[in-house]
């Protein structure tokens, strides 16, 4: 006798497996070096050095590289902190944080620094650049859809 599984059960199993795979992809992760997501995110970070010219940033004729201090991706959101360096590893600009959002398959800067303005002092603007606990809370208010698990733990931040 050849046992068969009823079609409705097969359909249900297929839906459950697809849903489980989709949920697994939604966990917070750090894309490994050389991965498509990491390359795309670094291309966006490189835009500052190429007058916002995406094709030029991708070609990277200036050889702008990054030492990645922090990178977390969850779904269509990412947060990174990078040190821009040259091929010899020499720092070429100050470190920078950026919140990114993927829309229609393309990573773009969320421009959190502008979204959480105004800054009452130069010190509070510097705090925003340093991703302090206060800055993180302001970003969460400005971008409520951004997953909290891509941000550094608040307990590790200064108040």
Structure commentary:
This protein has 159 residues and is an alpha+beta fold. It has one domain (28-156). It contains six helices and four strands. A four-stranded antiparallel sheet has the order 1-2-3-4, with helices on one face. The relative contact order is 0.11.
Q: Sheet with the most strands?
A: 4 strands, antiparallel
Please state the CA-atom Rg, rounded to the nearest Å.
Answer: 20 Å
What is the averaged pLDDT score?
85
Query: What order do the helices and strands follow?
Result: HHHEEEEHHH
Question: Spans with pLDDT under 50 lasting ≥5 residues?
Answer: 9-25
Number of helices: 6
- Structural class by SSE content: alpha+beta
Gap between N and C termini, in Å?
69 Å
Count up the domains. Answer: 1
DSSP strand content: 15-25%
How would you sum up the global shape?
Answer: globular
How many extended strands? Answer: 4
Please estimate the helix content.
25-40%
Strand order in the largest sheet: 1-2-3-4
């Amino acid at each position: 006798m050849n046992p068969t599984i009823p079609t409705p059960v097969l359909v249900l199993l297929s839906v459950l497996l697809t849903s489980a795979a989709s949920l697994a992809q939604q966990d917070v992760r750090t894309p490994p070096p050389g991965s498509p997501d990491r390359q795309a995110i670094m291309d966006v970070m490189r835009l500052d050095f190429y007058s916002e010219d995406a094709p030029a940033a991708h070609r990277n004729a200036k050889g702008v590289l990054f030492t990645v201090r922090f990178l977390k991706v969850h779904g269509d959101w990412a947060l990174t902190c990078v040190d821009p360096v040259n091929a010899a590893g020499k720092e070429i600009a100050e470190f920078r944080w950026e919140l990114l959002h993927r829309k229609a398959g393309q990573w773009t800067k969320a421009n959190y620094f502008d979204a959480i303005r105004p800054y009452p002092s130069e010190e509070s603007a510097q705090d925003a650049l340093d991703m302090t606990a206060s800055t993180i809370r302001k970003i969460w208010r400005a971008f409520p859809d951004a997953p909290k698990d891509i941000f550094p733990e608040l307990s590790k931040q200064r108040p």
